[in-house]
Amino acid sequence: MSLDGCGAPQQGVDLAVGPDEVVLTGRVSAGGQPVGGAFVRLLDAAGEFTAEVVSSPEGDFRFYAAPGTWTVRALHRSGNGQASVSADGPGVHPVEVAVA
């Protein structure tokens, strides 16, 4: 199922991960509260833009990526924030992004 018809996977649902898949998933929050509608960008180790999704109303987001070190940046009218995550192999790699 897509998010608003843009082709992005539905955010905030249980996730079955294949044996070779690398998934970066997390939540955008501000003051401990979820932030929906944030533009969440995935940047590679060189800081280059790779992908973007919009966080769900619960602040959830998800990217399918290659193994490596990634930066997740969230942009929202209430503030911006970023976090790094190392995905050194297949599986689900959680990352939380606080905006301020």
Automatic annotation (TrEMBL):
Stored InterPro entries: DUF1416
Top-level lineage group: Bacteria
Name of the protein: DUF1416 domain-containing protein
Organism taxonomic ancestry: Bacteria, Bacillati, Actinomycetota, Actinomycetes, Pseudonocardiales
